[in-house]
Every structure is written in structure tokens, then in C-alpha cells.
Amino acid sequence: MAVFRPTALRPASLFAACLLGAATLSGSVQAATTVNLGYNGAPDPEKNAVHVFATDLKKRVEEKTDGEIEIKLYPNSMLGEEQERMEQVMSSPGLNIASFAGMSPVVPEIYVSAIPFLFDDFDDARQFFDEGEYWQAVENDLRERAGLELLAVVEEGGFLAFTNDKRPIASPDDFEGLRFRAMDPSQVALYEAFGASGTPIPWTEVYMALKTGVADGQMNPPMYIILGSLYEVQDYLTLANIQYSDQFLVGNAAMIDGWDEAMRSAFQEAVAEANQMARDHNEARVDERIAYLEEQGMEIIRPDEEQLAAFREQGQPAYLDWLEQQDIAPRYVDMALEDAGLTTQSE
């Protein structure tokens, strides 16, 4: 979550030239239409779950449309950083896999989906996004405000877990006095609710901050803990299902609406299948990654139901207060809590 308060987008015209593909905005799609797909991270399936999804999506779209749509991949933010890519796909035909940093300037309500300890497991999270009233409202807002179709919630490594190098953390009381790296002020609020302190530190500086003691701990999915070699400077891993780690596939709505029904159906079918593949792949790797971290010497802490409830009861109010400070309408929070099977603020 690199962006934590909505900011104005720059004129989309500055970035439209970056798109190399051509697609019609109305009428039938011409043969061999190229659609660009930009995203973050290296083109390495072992290091980037989003790349696994993107490569599979490319294959399926091209197969299901008999080559009439060709997806051209641009990993490593080759088409620009988060807001640049969003501006491009808002103004021109294309696809983008955005993080919260790209989505929040347009739909800050998306932060509601990151309420900590909202889900017990993958099934809960997937049902929330696939069937929930809150997520449907976010999808509608994105189309109305930006002309973008929200096509898929892409898993990028499971659930966030706490790590630190001081002591095992199995309850909120164990945080007392510790210093944690935070991604944004919402995480600072969460740590402070537990009696710890939080300091925003860029990802590129996390390893050294942990090594030198600037921070005692951090939180990320197991995949990122491995990618950053954080197991070298962290002794304890707490699997608390803090937040569901995801990004978002969006597409230019006029482009998609302009395809004929058969083309649009084939494309949507490819997206659904690629997303299911990514979910299966991601979930299958979680235990493997945790086992790897244990092999590297990390102690794995698995809080029980009572301990998880304590995390939720102490941590959620701090995040909800932060959401209120962002001027996000309470109805979004109420819808999300209801979709997750939790008590709403108005009750």
C-alpha cells in the first residue's frame, strides 16, 4: 500500500502514447488485435505470483479467441509506475494489474477490503470478492468514475504474517515495546493498537532496517519473506492471517464493451480460468513456502482461535478509525463487515 491518501491523477494524455497495442473502442475487433498488459515485478514464476497469472492469461486469451486477441506482457512496471499505468488504461485500450497504490486514487474505498483479520482462510476471502455486496459496489464505482472494468482479484502470495527477531508473537500482548516496519499509516495504527510502534520504510530498505535493528519486525506473505531473504534477519513467523494479499486486473471498459458477444465471452472465460489457476497455484505453494522458512531456522507460531480473536478485537478498531479519517463512507465498511460475517459498525 504505497499510497495511503487519494491524490489527483495526472492528465491521462501524458501517458496514452506509452500504449503500443491497438484495439477498437466500438464495433468488431479486427484480427490479431494486440492488447498490452502491464504489471509490477519480475517476469519470474518463482518470484512473482502475478507473473504466473499474467502468462497464463495470455495463453488462454489467445487460445480461446483463436489468436484474434494477442496479449503483450509488460512486467517490471515497463509501462510506468502504478498511477501512470492506471491513467493509460483509463484513456486507451489496454489491461493493467494494479496494487492498492494504483487503485486507491480512483476508488479509495478499496482500502476497506484490507481491514485486518477480516478472513479466516482463502475460502472466506474468495467468497467476499466473488459474491459480496461491498465488492460489487467497488466494481460499479470504478466503472462509473474511471471507465474501467474490474476483471479479477489476483492473489499474490497468500495472507500477510508477522515476523520479528525478538520473541514469539502469539497474542497482542507480545507486541509490547517492539518496533515494526510499516507500509503506510494504516499499519502504523495497527501496530500501535498492539502496544508496538510502526515506522514506514520502503521495501528496498526493509532487509537492512531489520538487520541493523532500525525495526524489530514487519509483515508480509511468506512469498515476500523468501524473496527478500528476510528469514536471514528474522527469527519468528506468526501466521495470523492479517490481510489477504492481492492485486487487481482492470481493463478499459470501452474496449471490452466494443468487442462482439462471442469475443467478450471468450475473453471473460479466459480471465476466470486464469484466475482459478492462479488461486490453485498460490494456495498450493503456501505450505511449501512456510516449510522452507522453517527449514531456514524460523520458528513458526500458529495462533489458536482464541488468540486470533484477540488480534481481531484489538486490531480492527484501530484500522476502522483510520478508514474514518480517510473520509470513506461508513456504508462501505458496513457492507464489507456484513459480507465477511462480522458485526457492522452501526449495530
Task: Please describe what this structure looks like.
The protein has about 350 residues and is of the alpha/beta class. It folds into 2 domains: about 10-155 and about 245-285, 3-Layer(aba) Sandwich (D-Maltodextrin-Binding Protein, domain 2); about 160-240 and about 295-330, D-Maltodextrin-Binding Protein, domain 2, CATH 3.40.190.170. About 45% of the residues lie in helices and about 15% in strands. It has helices at about 50-65, 80-90, 100-105, 120-130, 135-145, 185-195, 205-210, 220-225, 255-260, 260-295, 305-325, 330-340, and strands at about 35-40, 70-75, 95-100, 150-160, 160-165, 180, 195-200, 215-220, 235-240, 245-250, 300. It has a 5-stranded mixed β-sheet with strand order 2-1-3-10-4, sandwiched between helices. A 4-stranded mixed β-sheet has the order 8-5-9-11. It has a two-stranded parallel ribbon with strand order 6-7. The longest helix has about 35 residues, at about 260-295. The chain is globular.
